[in-house]
């Protein structure tokens, strides 16, 4: 075999090695979720639970069953500062773009867990929360939450996340973040305008209402 033939064979062998090694080097979203990364990102499960169901007491949101596009967008937002959080920012920054997408795909593929807060609040709080979710308050220019987030709060696509089954403390904290402009990564700035029109009591009511709904898969998990 001449030199040119040997070079071709070596090059072909190198290509074969790359093709074989490629998938093994691909980001493993489940591994990152369970054990973190060697670059310093901790295991997602430490806060969000082994099943991705979040924590009611800690106010950590559920990730399981949310749209992969939404989860990727939020990780990117923590990374670029358009969603501020002292815990999540360094974690997102420690993940590569491929790792963020792998983690998002992993959690999107998990079944939505049963809501931990299974019983709706009673009385005025429950009624107010339901009205805001299903009808809104047009006297103050507040549309129904379900118009964007789905009639059962299941979420729609990458832009409108699931609200059902999320911890009430988490949902209320997000409304506060929209008001304070520490979160400003939504389409057309819609949530800032809505959150500003909700009183503290309104926020607590609608958060409690959605926390009591059963979690379900996003209507479109892209």
Judged by helices, strands and strand pairing, the structural class is mainly alpha
Q: What are the low-pLDDT stretches, counting only 5+ consecutive residues below 50?
A: 3-25
Number of strands: 0
Averaged pLDDT, please? 86
Describe the biggest sheet? none
Quick gist of this model?
Helices cover about 50% and strands about 0% of the residues.
Give the topology, please:
Blueprint: H1 3-25, H2 29-35, H3 45-48, H4 68-80, H5 88-94, H6 97-108, H7 123-134, H8 146-149, H9 168-180, H10 190-197, H11 200-211
Q: What features would you describe in this structure?
A:
This protein is mainly α. Helices cover 52% and strands 0% of the residues. It is built from eleven helices and no strands. Helix 2 crosses helix 6 (97-108), helix 4 (68-80) crosses helix 5 and helix 9 packs across helix 10. The radius of gyration is 21 Å and the shape is globular.
């Amino acid at each position: 075999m001449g030199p040119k033939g040997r070079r071709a064979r070596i090059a072909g062998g190198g290509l074969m090695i790359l093709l074989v090694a490629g998938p093994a080097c691909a980001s493993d979203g489940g591994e990152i979720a369970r054990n973190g990364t060697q670059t310093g990102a901790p295991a997602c499960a430490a806060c969000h639970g082994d099943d991705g169901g979040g924590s009611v007491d800690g106010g950590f949101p559920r990730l399981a069953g949310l749209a992969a596009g939404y989860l990727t967008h939020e990780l990117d937002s923590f990374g670029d500062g358009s969603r501020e959080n002292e815990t999540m920012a360094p974690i997102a920054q420690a993940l590569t773009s491929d790792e963020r997408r792998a983690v998002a795909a992993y959690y999107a593929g998990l079944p939505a867990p049963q809501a931990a807060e299974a019983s709706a609040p009673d009385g005025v709080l429950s009624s107010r929360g339901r009205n805001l979710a299903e009808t809104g308050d047009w006297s103050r220019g507040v549309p129904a939450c379900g118009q964007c987030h789905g009639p059962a709060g299941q979420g729609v696509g990458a832009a409108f996340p699931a609200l059902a089954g999320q911890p009430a403390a988490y949902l209320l904290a997000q409304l506060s973040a929209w008001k304070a402009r520490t979160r400003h990564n939504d389409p057309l700035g819609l949530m800032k305008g809505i959150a500003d029109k909700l009183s503290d009591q309104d926020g607590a009511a609608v958060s409690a209402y959605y926390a009591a709904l059963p979690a379900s898969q996003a209507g479109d998990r892209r």
